[in-house]
Design a protein that fits this description.
7-stranded mixed sheet; 6-stranded parallel sheet
Length: 355
């Protein structure tokens, strides 16, 4: 195991309690195609919470979560030409794929059957992957992303999952036509970025939420044009048949019928949230309105870089709450209650070593 001697330190969960505690482990040494990154910030995704508690039933403990990684390059391999030491870079949801299948050839590594996740996965060399709740990571250059100058590392980190997860379906399903009406269901880590993207594309944007207390923030801070309380029958009725698209970012089990009612004929409902139980899909409103329901995962590496560059051009970043490493368990409890505006980001560089 001499080749795995790059010492690392992070936060790991060791059982389904999901409690994170200090963890010493090893990374592989930097190979010819690798980039070694000193991690400065890491976003806290809802997927991290699902994983540490084994809510999807696929967790291998110990697990170091984190796939919204921002840092600086500290070492590059002999074949690396895109990056140099000192560059501000990021790593998202995956760190490898087969690179040869049809989807990889289309720059859609996020749909590769052999993709390797940034954490809770097995790498090509047989080692476990550990995520960004740690001080360093070694990643194949193909899966490293560059931050534009005017996208900050801390508020930019969540773009690497939350950002691309809404940007990719907006591009694929045509939610980019200026003047069209976009509904954003759920105003959390993904939803608040979807609002910003929608406005940057020139869409009319309505936030759909169960929480009336988010209305002022949605309209005044995020720039949404309208707000619908999804539990208010009168508000739903007033908005019936008005939207061209809805991007559904809700990670909890919820009803699809009210959302379908808001769509115009030919409207598209695209879901990107990952509830842990199936949703009921009423067929009559789909047929009667020639509506479409679709899904989308995070985008490939090329599209993720495109998204970051788009954010640089339009001055978009996530709204974050910066936390210390020793606050992570409290943050996870708050995240479970949706008590965050709108993404926790761990200040890894300034706090992890103090544990």
């Amino acid at each position: 195991m001499a080749e795995f001697q790059h010492k690392a330190f992070g936060l790991a969960a060791t059982d389904s309690s999901g409690v994170l505690s200090p963890f010493h482990f090893s990374r592989r040494e930097n190979g010819d195609d690798d980039v070694t990154i000193k991690i400065l910030y890491c976003g806290v995704c809802h997927s991290d919470l699902h994983t540490v508690k084994n809510e999807w039933g696929i967790t291998q403990y110990p697990v170091v979560p984190g796939h919204e990684i921002a840092g600086v390059v500290t070492k590059i391999g002999n074949n690396v030409e895109k990056f140099k030491v000192g560059d501000r870079v990021g790593v998202g949801v995956i760190v490898n794929s087969c690179r040869t299948c049809d989807v990889c050839q289309q720059d859609l590594e996020s749909y590769c059957a052999k993709m390797i996740f940034t954490y809770n996965s097995t790498d090509k060399d047989g080692t476990r992957t550990y995520g960004g709740y740690s001080d360093t990571v070694v990643v194949d250059q193909h899966f490293v992303l560059r931050f534009p100058e005017n996208v900050p590392s801390d508020a930019g980190a969540p773009l690497l999952c939350a950002g691309i997860t809404v940007y990719s379906p907006m591009k694929y399903y045509g939610m980019t036509e200026a003047g069209k009406h976009l509904g954003v269901a759920g105003l959390g880590g993904l939803g608040h970025v979807a609002v910003k993207f929608g406005k940057a594309f020139g869409l009319k944007v309505t936030v759909i939420s169960t929480s009336p207390k988010k209305k002022a923030e949605a309209l005044n801070k995020l720039g949404a044009d309208a707000f619908v309380v999804s539990t208010d029958a009168a508000e739903l009725e007033a908005a019936t048949g008005t939207m061209d698209f809805i991007i559904d970012t809700i990670a909890a089990v919820h009803q699809l019928a009210p959302l379908l009612s808001l769509l115009k004929m030919n409207g598209k409902l695209v879901t990107v949230g990952l509830p842990d139980k199936p949703l009921d899909l009423p067929i009559f409103p789909l047929v009667a309105g020639r509506k479409m329901i679709g899904g989308s995962d995070f985008g490939g590496i090329k599209e993720t870089q495109e998204m970051l560059d788009f954010c640089g051009k339009h001055g978009i970043a996530a709204d974050i709450e910066l936390i210390r490493a020793d606050e992570i368990n409290a943050a996870m409890e708050r995240l479970a209650k949706s008590d965050v505006r709108y993404r926790f980001v761990i200040d890894v560089g300034n706090s992890l070593a103090k544990l």
